[in-house]
Design the sequence.
């Protein structure tokens, strides 16, 4: 918990709500600002056209910025929209205050307008002079340095400190420290500086001794354990990563266990949430219990069909599917079939083709219909190469199987990736197609 909290005051003086006479000339370029100001004036019945002397009252002759010590005035002036020589606008002024706040350098921003001078009063956030971390013992030092985003010399921010503490606790839990507590203290120093103390109570590191699936009868526990990320500890291999209690991962494994049932054809399987974590403090061990509420029937495939934009031989596609009639249905196989059918269409230019499975259940049988929407053929407009500093562009382009002006091809895209990797010039390559509205696509190679 953060012991010392400072309230950030979002003070905006009454100037933000002042309404002034309607100007004869166009002062603002943004239509929304004009409309909003006109609405404010109409409420007060401001109908008359101001004289030149009235316009001068609202003209900004000078802009002053006070309180900016570590942030330059020039930088602040480049951020705000109000300018010397222009008329003052409450809407623009409100935007200026918001823009200054978004810089994340200031705790408070106020504004005042008097005798043609617009003054911004800023209160800078304190600078972090020192960060002390106490209590870290068993957590790996190198990993701790990686997660520490708060740095000496940064502007201090309460929310960033809270976020930092939350991320540290999260990483501790991934390592099996499920009872870690962290507190912080802020010590005020001269010259608007602070000292941040982070006090850690690590607690004990717990290992997973046993994983159980209550209610699992049709699918074995051993099979279910293969599908989840949480693993039991091998007493002979405590140094390995497997066996640590990660509460977030345990919660995700509830869905992984359900997916396992789907892959085996149990489409109605339900697992209660959340999984139970039973702790033995004396032995620093835990038991993870997944509660299977319902396994349901195991379904077989009765009928397979295609619908929608069919441009290939239907029978040939169905014969090549991994999902087969009279066999048990598998979510994994259905997903692979969707990807394969999609790739057929993408290879002939239909880059944005979609395949959606429609599953109808009856007793212990299912009908599966793959509904296909091909979209339009996409043509390559530009091939853009980024991040290349040593290898000449023509060397890269000769390894790309896609050509500008020709139809998109998924197979050619994959072939281009492996061809570029085989050159040995690059450690990492990303090839991303960006699809445009006019049935064209730009290819970005980074």
Sequence:
């Amino acid at each position: 918990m953060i012991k010392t909290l400072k309230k950030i005051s979002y003070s905006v003086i009454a100037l933000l709500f002042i309404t002034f006479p309607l100007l004869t000339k166009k002062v603002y370029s943004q239509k929304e600002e004009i409309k909003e100001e006109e609405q404010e004036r109409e409420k007060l019945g401001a109908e008359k056209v101001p004289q030149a002397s009235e316009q001068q009252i609202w003209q900004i002759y000078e802009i002053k910025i006070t309180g900016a010590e570590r942030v330059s005035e020039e930088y602040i002036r480049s951020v705000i929209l109000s300018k010397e020589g222009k008329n003052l606008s409450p809407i623009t002024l409100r935007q200026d205050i918001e823009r200054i706040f978004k810089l994340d350098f200031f705790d408070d921003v106020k504004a005042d307008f008097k005798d043609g001078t617009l003054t911004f009063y800023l209160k800078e956030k304190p600078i972090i002079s020192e960060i002390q971390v106490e209590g870290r013992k068993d957590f790996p030092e190198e990993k701790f340095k990686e997660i520490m985003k708060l740095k000496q010399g940064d502007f201090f921010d309460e929310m960033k400190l809270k976020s930092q503490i939350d991320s540290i606790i999260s990483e501790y839990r991934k390592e099996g420290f499920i009872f870690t507590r962290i507190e912080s203290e802020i010590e005020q120093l001269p010259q608007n500086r602070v000292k941040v103390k982070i006090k850690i109570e690590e607690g004990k590191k717990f290992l997973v001794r046993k994983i159980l699936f209550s209610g699992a009868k049709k699918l074995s526990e051993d099979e279910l354990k293969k599908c989840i990320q949480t693993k039991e500890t091998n007493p002979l291999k405590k140094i390995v990563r497997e066996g640590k209690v990660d509460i977030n991962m345990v919660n995700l494994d509830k869905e992984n266990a359900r997916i396992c049932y789907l892959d085996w054809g149990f489409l109605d399987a339900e697992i209660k949430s959340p999984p139970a974590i039973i702790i033995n403090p004396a032995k620093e061990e835990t038991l993870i219990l997944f509660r299977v509420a319902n396994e349901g029937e195991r379904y077989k495939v009765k009928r397979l069909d295609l619908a929608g934009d069919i441009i290939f031989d239907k029978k040939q596609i169905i014969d090549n599917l991994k999902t087969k009639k009279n066999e048990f249905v598998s979510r994994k196989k259905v997903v692979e079939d969707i990807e394969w059918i999609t790739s057929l269409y993408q290879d002939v230019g239909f880059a944005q083709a979609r395949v959606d499975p429609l599953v109808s259940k009856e007793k212990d049988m299912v009908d599966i219909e793959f509904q296909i929407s091909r979209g339009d053929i996409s043509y390559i407009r530009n091939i853009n190469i980024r991040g290349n500093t040593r290898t000449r562009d023509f060397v890269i382009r000769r390894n790309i199987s896609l050509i500008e002006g020709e139809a998109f091809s998924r197979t050619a895209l994959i072939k281009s990736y492996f061809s570029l990797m085989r050159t040995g010039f690059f450690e990492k390559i990303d090839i991303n197609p960006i699809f445009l509205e006019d049935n064209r696509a730009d290819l970005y190679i980074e």
